[in-house]
Structure formats: C-alpha cells, structure tokens
Amino acid sequence: MPFIKPTYNIDGDVTDIIIETLVADGIRGLIFDLDSTLMESKSGRLTDEVSAWLIKARPHFKMVILSNNKNTAYLEKVKALFDMPVIGYAKKPSRRGFRKAIEMLGLTPTEVAVIGDRPLTDILGGHRSGAKTVLVKILRTINEPSWKTSIRNLERRLIGR
Ligand SMILES: [Mg+2]
C-alpha cells in the first residue's frame, strides 16, 4: 500500500475548496472526478451549490472531467451539463488518463490539481502523475448508505491523512 497524502485535504465537499488558495499556489488547471465529487452518480443533475462554485472557479482554471465511466452517451450528456471536456474510460488510478487530461489542459503536472473523493483512485493516480491532489468528501447533497461510508473512511485511514 503506497503511502500518499493529498496536497489538500478538504473537510467538506468540492464547494468548500478555497479557490484563492489554489490560485496562490500556482494551480492553473483542474481535473475533476465525476461521481460523488461533481454530481450524484447517474443523477444527470448539477446542484445549485456546485454550479455556483464552478462559476467562481471558471475564470481561474482550465478544467476537465476524468471519469472511469464507459457510457459514451452519458459522458456526452455530462460534457453538455458541465460545459467542459470529459474523458471517460480513465481506468483510474492508471496514469494514462491523467496524462491525457494534463495534456488536454496544456499545462505542466505541477500546475494541475486533481480533485476527487477516492484516495485509491483519484488521489493515488493524480499523485503518480505528478499533479497536486485535493481530497474532498462526497457532495453533502448525497445520502450514502452507511456501509459505503465505512469503506470510504477506511480508505481515508489507509492514506494516513
Ligand atoms: Mg468519485
């Protein structure tokens, strides 16, 4: 088990990320996880809170969504919903998808932050790609079954936050 610590460990969801901090630290691009980070899985719905945060963030960063999802029609919908490029079939934590996303942003890895809720996919993959990493909690608008929360907490303990 590799020991990885996210660059930023957010005690909240994506909307609690302080945009000014990332800007001050030289971050110019964001790679987002999709499920539970930007929206409830398969909901096809963008909440007002996330939408408002993205509007504030947009002037500061280039953005791309990186997802393990393989449903092309669904990914097309997500692209339209969020109005940003979407890379599917990512096989996170494989470095391949992250490299592709960083290349698409046209930035160096250290100028990029990977934002996600899963330490062993989003954070591990981002770290291995040389990017900065932001571990967030799942959107507070999602009601998660308790067994899933337990697994998530275990994963967080494994990375030694
Ligand atoms: Mg996720």
Structural class: alpha/beta
The Cα radius of gyration reads 14 Å
Gross morphology: globular
Low-confidence stretches: none
Q: How can the largest sheet be summarized?
A: 6 strands, parallel
Mean pLDDT: 93
Fraction of residues in H or I helices: 25-40%
Can you lay out the helices and strands and say which pair or pack?
Layout: E1 8-9, H1 19-24, E2 29-32, H2 48-57, E3 62-66, H3 72-82, E4 86-87, H4 95-105, E5 112-116, H5 119-128, E6 132-135, H6 146-158
Parallel strand pairs: 1-6, 2-3, 2-5, 3-4, 5-6
Account of the 3D structure:
- The protein has 161 residues and is an alpha/beta fold.
- It has one domain: HAD superfamily/HAD-like (Rossmann fold, 3-Layer(aba) Sandwich), CATH 3.40.50.1000.
- Helices cover 38% and strands 14% of the residues.
- The chain has a 6-stranded parallel sheet with strand order 1-6-5-2-3-4.
- It is globular.
- The model has no long low-confidence stretch (mean pLDDT 93).
- The site of magnesium ion has 7 residues, from loops.
List keywords for this structure.
6 helices; 38% helix; binds magnesium ion; 161 residues; alpha/beta; single chain; Rossmann fold; 6-stranded parallel beta sheet
Give a brief outline of the structure:
The chain is α/β, with parallel strands linked by helices and 161 residues long.
